Amino acid sequence: MSLLTPSADATHPHAPVLAIHHLRILLVEDDPAVRVGSTQAFQLAGLLVDSCSSAELAHKYIVPGFAGIVITDVKLPGSSGLELLRHIKAVDQGIPVILVTGHGDITMAVDAMRNGAYDFIEKPYSSEQLIEVARRAMEARGLLLEVVALRERLQNRQGIESVLLGNSAAMTELRRIIVDVADTNADVLIYGETGSGKEVVARCLHDHSQRKKYNFVALNCGAIPEALFESEVFGHESGAFTGAVKRQMGKIEFADNGSLFLDEIESMPMVLQIKLLRTLQERTIARLGSNEQLAINVRVIAAAKLDLSMLAEQNKFRADLYYRLNLIVLTIPPLRDRRDDIPMLFEHFVLHAALRYNRAAPMVTNAQMQRLMAHSWPGNVRELRNIADRFVLGIVEKDGALFPQATSTPTLADQVTHFERALIDMELRRQRGNVTQAGEILGLPKQTLYHKMQKYQLVAEEYK
């Protein structure tokens, strides 16, 4: 999960962090002396600032996605600071607004915070106080914009990366091989555990080939009764058997010029393995009840969760069919072997579930992400997707193993803290504990990154 600046390419895996020096402060203050003094204080602190004397003049700056924060006096000529707060929240709920209040306005300020204000500062205040509050708000805004940029990046992925997600070396290599071999006519054998995404890989092979204009036909060899298998795969003529009242096209014929995906091929009956082998060798089929040989142009993509060579040695799978299929072999790594991909995959599934169920996409906390990273994932990517669906729907795990019921809604500050820790944790994982490289990619000075690592109890040696 990389971070983006506003001008960074959203597809670049190592775009730099949106640091606060990219953000701006909008200062709304009608007193010229206070406005000039505060502006100079911000500038001396290296912060970008714009200033105006009224809420009405501030409106032109306030747009959705405004890369900054607003500091406004409550008492202004014309519209008040509270009215400006309401306007800002109507435009973009995520823009932090700091209210400057007079002495004795504490109750009003607290009410304003309940209505969306980020913080308040009471007059008189020092430049140090003002800058400290502003920096906190800017860090929160920067991290929130990073979350938005990350989600847009996930939603805007194109090509094979939008389907086969993951930055791990194994997934990068798998995508490369798929693109290289997709447009060949060679049959393919895919190995992968249950739920690892074998059909997704098969569809990628189809979609990135010239065959994408024709049918992709998927058949689970373990889900069809043996008595019906031959008819389903090869088709039948009218009267071929009792109940065959009309001709039926088989799966192979329906996949002509396209791709035939045979999942769990290890469960195919031995007698049908012989017919499949003949089809692969001769590229012809005969419907059940017919002697006519039909020429077919189909690419067979087989998938197995068991080692076919071992099954062939045990005479549980035809060795000649295995050798016929064992031309291009793709292996999908189990999720437990590419844990660095879990945060990106989970975010992707959460976004899609939120769209499907018309729900808000909730923010995963650091504790929850740690549980996801530590889980053994026997169901692989399919299990992770189901967890994401339940997370969006608010369904709690029965044993509370992954996502126990939250006792309260986390505050924005808590969510920002959890997200920042998760980002640093993931970059340290990617860089195998190299703090210098992680700091460069995150856009953080080495000393600052060490400070944050100490704050979040992250130890570089544990990543090596």
Write structural notes for this entry.
There is one protein chain. The protein has helices at 32-44, 55-58, 81-91, 106-114, 127-155, 169-181, 198-207, 226-234, 251-254, 270-282, 308-313, 319-325, 342-357, 366-374, 380-393, 412-430, 435-442, 446-455; strands at residues 24-28, 48-52, 68-73, 97-101, 119-122, 188-191, 216-220, 259-263, 284-285, 294-295, 299-304, 328-331. The strands form three sheets. A five-stranded parallel β-sheet has the order 2-1-3-4-5, with helices on both faces. A five-stranded parallel β-sheet has the order 7-8-11-6-12. With 464 residues, the chain is an alpha/beta fold. The chain has three domains: 20-155, Rossmann fold (3-Layer(aba) Sandwich); 169-332, 3-Layer(aba) Sandwich (Rossmann fold), CATH 3.40.50; 337-463, Helicase, Ruva Protein, domain 3, CATH 1.10.8.60.
Task: Give the CA-based shape.
Answer: elongated
The description of the largest β-sheet is: 5 strands, parallel
Number of helices: 18
CATH fold-level label of the largest domain: Rossmann fold
Number of domains: 3
Strand order of the largest sheet: 2-1-3-4-5
Mean pLDDT over the residues: 84
CATH class category label of the largest domain: Alpha Beta
> What's the CATH architecture name of the largest domain?
3-Layer(aba) Sandwich
Low-confidence stretches: 1-18
- SS content category: alpha/beta
β-sheet strand percentage: 5-15%
CATH superfamily of the largest domain: P-loop containing nucleotide triphosphate hydrolases
Number of strand elements: 12
